[in-house]
Design brief:
About 1% of the residues have low confidence. Strands 1, 2, 3, 4, 5, 6, 7 and 8 form an eight-stranded mixed β-sheet that branches. A five-stranded antiparallel β-sheet has the order 13-14-12-18-19, with helices on one face. With 994 residues, it is an alpha+beta fold. Strand 18 and strand 19 form a beta hairpin. Helix 20 crosses helix 23 and helix 30 packs across helix 34. It contains 34 helices and 28 strands.
């Protein structure tokens, strides 16, 4: 291992890095060393490398876990400004270490890094070596709450993990640290004893005192304008906090306060450091060439060659460092739409547009692009003729000025009629631009307009996208479409696999480009990549007597598809002893951490196999062995959590949730669990739950959310509810209580199962009502695409739970929200409840429309949506009545009434003042309908019983003058019609059915 550190030192010094020393106090990552945190601030260039022992108390495992340690070795590299080829430099360092990058599967997998305590964040990747995360690779965007310019790139190697892969060992203890000395022999005792200290023995009062003392000293040093020593005490604060956290001794309030305090100190340190460097005249100089005010787009002249005789194919490829999987799909659609819109704004003829994408490229092709735009006649309108000439017919100053602006003599002005007015005008023939001229500007605009859900900056002025754009290929037939965007120049070169020889190739023509890429081992078409994933995984699973649940893992397969440019499925195996863990744990570890596809038998039971999907060609045995070792370590970790949790009483886990922040104003997860419990019990009273169901509900309500205090769910949050069920049964709770605790979390995603039991449904409903009301009360409702707390999912959960159960029909949406409001820790104003209700109803409306129901029908029944089950039933009735002659007559009659009755008209009239036979008949029909319907809510029944009333309405309008001259008669007749209107009120929204 020490030899590897020397190799990295040599490699990075040869690439211009300074070597500095580790921080002389505990830090959780190399990022916290002043050589990174402080040096990324300001305009000075900085290239540095160093070893950093990284101390993370929460990762203590007593030395038992194969690759998780409380003190591990990081190798940190910072390149400022980011050089544009940091990925290539990194891969070169792996080769220097002896890693055959062509044989192994090396992947850049999305990672959005953030440090709340330091006010720092950046975008980049985890780097995987055969499924093992070996490096974190980040483009810093902010540090200390300060936006960074220039942007630095950070490369953080996990040295033990890399060496385990190189040496082929399965446990860190077996690493050869130096000739004849293993890692375990050198450091195993320290790993065990420090784990004991952090998890069991650290004195809490001592750590709290250290935190306060160090925070105070940092404050004093900042006041003295000494940022470097002040920062060292911020780091000591951070370590004291981490020790307390590992001991489970940080409450919700303490966590929020401590993070805010450390973040504030770090922000002041960063600002003071930058100010001090400026006072010193920036001793290391200033980075040049990143001025964001510089020109972003340059359109260069087209290649000097004869015009093309006919249509040609346009190819534009935007080359990107690995995009997040979700952005691959989103960007493909965005580029298609933008390209279609921009071409439509020109006069350039073209054929079909197609766009496909992979992790490193977006490829757009346009067929049949004509050589140039069509010529056209352009007319520019000037002032009115009456203002352009005087009484003698001479041009006025208005006409002369207009002619001059158009470059013509006043005598050359024509005339054009616009509406009723005649204007002077200039008409000229405009020669269409060449295709190259049109496309150069259009494509430059296309590239600069790219945006993603979360954008980053890099060393490219005025560009912002999900990851750095590194090349642009643009061809029209065989000719380059020339333009430059922020230092990037279009050309005919594309990048293929990084280990290909050569990694960059020339593209001869736009025609057949997807086949050209396939010849170089790249599938740009996502559908084809997905097919290879499914077919390859299915074939491998069948070889061991199993299969892949393709439909169940469709979203995972989609993600895998967008992680690779050419999928290579590889079958792996794991020790069957791990099958004693609950299957949900095994699957979650595969899916969440590793993106593996589980192999199951014909009954759906887990088999000890999985399918990993590598990117491109590789040594299958090497990749298989690496992925198997990673999964073994993951399952060892899960086993550690499982054993620890089984030895912990449920009440103790529940108590731990007091240390978990839900939202600072809304309290801890324990506070939220108590609200859910209270709301569920109140809802049970509304629908009259009793007997066994009530006993189950009461016990489950006492325990709800307890598993959030388990080690397993802390590590794998997607197992919330699943682990509650598993731990509850093993702790002696009834199957019914365990089921209710699991169902509390349902539904977890679109299409998920709904609660099957009444106690579970009440808990799940209470959970989502509490979430909606609490977050609306503090103004945390979703905005745009942001929905950090999953309120859209919760809203649909409320709707679908109420839709699914007739035994909850007595609970309305408004009633449920009001009950939840009674339990909140913050004031809930009427407008908050109204906002939450509208939010839920919008989700309900959207769901119904997406299910294929007509928009008008959906909106018509939303008047009943406070009771979703009733609204859905009414929608079914409404759709069954479409085409029914009787309903058409009833509908027309009630709409006729609604049109004539003024808004606010009271349904009050004196039957004795009804003199005309038609109005008396209407009164009689209304009374009869009231008696027969007697509060009926069915639209079918309403339609069946109001035919006579509809006839009476029509006769009334035929024979009676509603707006009689006598005010009293008029008011009485309007009151009668208002009573007819009100009979139908609330059945549907009749005005939506026009």
């Amino acid at each position: 291992m020490q030899e590897a550190l020397l190799v990295l030192n040599k490699y990075w010094t040869e690439h211009g890095c300074l070597l500095v020393q580790p921080m002389n106090t505990e830090v959780g990552a190399g990022t916290l060393n002043p050589a990174t945190f402080l040096r990324v601030q300001g305009p000075e260039p900085w290239r540095v490398a160093y070893v950093e022992p990284s101390v993370r108390p929460d990762d203590s495992r007593y030395g038992e876990n194969p690759n998780r340690l409380q003190t591990h070795t990081q190798y940190q590299v910072v390149l400022k400004p980011e050089p544009g080829n940091a990925q290539a430099l990194f891969l070169g360092s792996l080769r220097a270490l002896g890693i055959d990058t062509a044989a192994h599967d090396i992947r850049f997998v999305e990672d959005n890094w953030a440090s709340p305590a330091l006010g720092a964040w950046g975008l980049g990747w985890e780097v995987w070596l055969d499924g093992l995360e070996i490096t974190q690779f980040t483009y810093f965007q902010q540090s200390g709450g300060i936006t960074l310019d220039p942007v630095s790139v950070e490369i953080t190697y996990g040295v033990e993990r890399i060496l385990m892969a190189l040496q082929g060992v399965d446990h860190f203890k077996d690493l050869l640290y130096a000739p004849g000395v293993t890692y375990g022999e050198a450091f195993g005792q320290a790993e065990y004893e420090m784990s004991r200290y952090y998890l069991d023995e650290a004195d809490l009062e001592t750590q709290r005192s250290l935190f306060e003392a160090c925070a105070g000293e940092a404050r004093r040093l900042l006041d003295l304008r000494l940022p470097v020593p002040a920062y060292s005490f911020v780091l000591k604060c951070s370590h004291a906090f981490n020790v307390l956290d590992a001991r489970g001794a940080v409450s919700t309030t303490e966590r929020a306060r401590s993070f805010a305090r450390m973040r504030g100190l770090a922000h002041e340190v960063a600002g003071l450091w930058a100010a001090r460097r400026e006072e010193l005249g920036f001793p290391l100089g200033r980075v040049t060439g990143t001025d964001s005010a510089g020109a972003s787009v340059v359109v260069t002249p087209a290649e000097a060659s004869p015009a093309r005789p006919g249509p040609a194919t346009l190819l534009v490829e935007i080359g990107v460092e690995e995009m997040p999987p979700a952005e691959v799909t989103r960007t493909s659609r965005a580029v298609h739409d933008a390209l279609a819109e921009k071409l439509a704004a020109t006069r350039l003829g073209h054929g079909d547009i197609s766009v496909c994408a992979g992790p490193r490229r977006v490829v757009a092709t346009v067929l049949g692009v004509l050589p140039r735009e069509a010529d056209h006649e352009q007319t520019v309108r000037g002032p009115r003729v009456s203002a352009a000439y005087d009484a003698e017919g001479n041009p006025t100053q208005a006409a002369v000025g207009f002619a001059r602006s158009q470059g013509v003599d006043p005598s050359g002005l024509g005339r054009v009629t616009v509406g009723a007015n005649e204007h002077v005008a200039v008409t000229r023939q405009v020669v269409g631009r060449s295709a190259e001229e049109v496309l150069s500007a259009l494509l430059a605009d296309l590239v600069t307009g790219l945006r993603s859900e979360k954008n980053m900056r890099w060393n490219a002025p005025r560009l912002a996208f999900t990851r750095p754009i590194r090349w642009i290929t643009a061809l029209l037939g065989e000719r380059v479409v020339p333009f430059a965007v922020s230092g990037l120049t279009s050309g005919r070169t594309t990048q293929v696999h990084r280990d290909a020889v050569p990694p960059a190739v020339q593209v001869p023509t736009a025609d057949g480009y997807l086949a050209f890429l396939e010849d170089h081992g790249i599938l740009a078409d996502a559908a084809e990549r997905r097919r290879l994933v499914v077919d390859g995984a299915t074939r491998l699973a069948a070889g061991v007597g199993g299969h892949i649940q393709v439909e169940q893992y469709g979203a995972l397969i989609d993600e895998i598809t967008n992680l690779v440019e050419f999928p290579t499925p590889v079958l792996g195996a794991f020790d069957a002893k791990y099958l004693t863990l609950p299957a949900d744990i095994l699957v979650t570890v595969m899916r969440k951490h590793q993106r593996y596809l589980p192999v199951v038998d014909a009954e759906g039971r887990m088999l000890p196999y999985f399918v990993a999907v590598a990117n491109g060609s590789c040594d299958h045995d090497v990749v298989r062995h690496g992925n198997e070792a990673v999964l073994r370590a993951r399952y060892e970790d899960a086993s550690f959590f499982w054993r620890a949790d089984l030895g912990t009483p449920l009440g103790e886990m529940r108590e731990r949730t007091r240390l978990l922040t839900f939202e600072e104003r809304l309290g801890s997860m324990a506070d939220r669990a108590e609200r859910i419990s209270a709301v569920a019990r109140r809802l049970a009273e509304v629908v009259g739950v009793s007997g066994t169901d009530r006993e189950v509900l009461d016990r489950a309500a006492e325990l709800t959310k307890f598993d959030l205090g388990s080690q397993m769910v802390t590590e794998l949050s997607g197992l919330a509810g699943v682990m509650a069920r598993e731990y509850a049964v093993r702790a002696g709770e009834s199957e019914a209580v365990a089921a209710a605790l699991f169902e509390n979390e349902l539904p977890r995603f679109a299409g998920d199962a709904l609660p099957a039991t009444l106690p579970g449904a009440l808990l799940a409903l209470a959970d989502r009502l509490d979430l909606l009301v609490g977050l609306f009360a503090i103004g945390a409702e979703p905005t745009g695409s942001s929905d950090a707390f999953g309120l859209r999912r919760s809203a649909l959960g409320v709707v679908n739970i109420l839709l699914s159960r007739s035994d909850l029909a007595g609970i309305t949406l408004g009633q449920g929200l009001a009950i939840a409001a009674e339990q909140q820790a913050v004031p809930v104003a009427p407008e908050h409840l109204d906002g939450a209700a509208r939010f839920v109803l919008r989700r309900f409306e959207q769901q119904l429309v997406e299910q294929g129901h007509a928009v008008t029908d959906v909106r018509a029944v939303l008047v009943r949506a406070d009771a979703p089950r009733l609204a859905a039933h009414t929608l079914e009735e409404l759709e069954s009545l479409r085409g029914d002659d009787r309903f058409a007559m009833v509908l027309a009659a009630f709409q006729r009434v609604r049109r004539i009755v003024p808004t606010g008209q009271a349904a009050a009239y004196d039957p004795h003042r009804l003199e005309e036979p038609a109005e008396q008949a209407l009164h009689t029909a209304l009374a009869k309908a009231r008696q027969v319907l007697d509060g009926e809510t069915s639209l079918i029944r309403f339609n069946a019983e109001t035919g006579e009333l509809a006839d009476a309405v029509n006769s009334f309008f035929d024979d009676v003058l509603v707006m009689a001259g006598d005010p009293g008669v008029r008011a009485n007749r309007l009151g009668l019609l208002a009573a007819v209107r009100d009979l139908a009120e609330g059945i549907v929204d009749w005005e939506e059915l026009v």
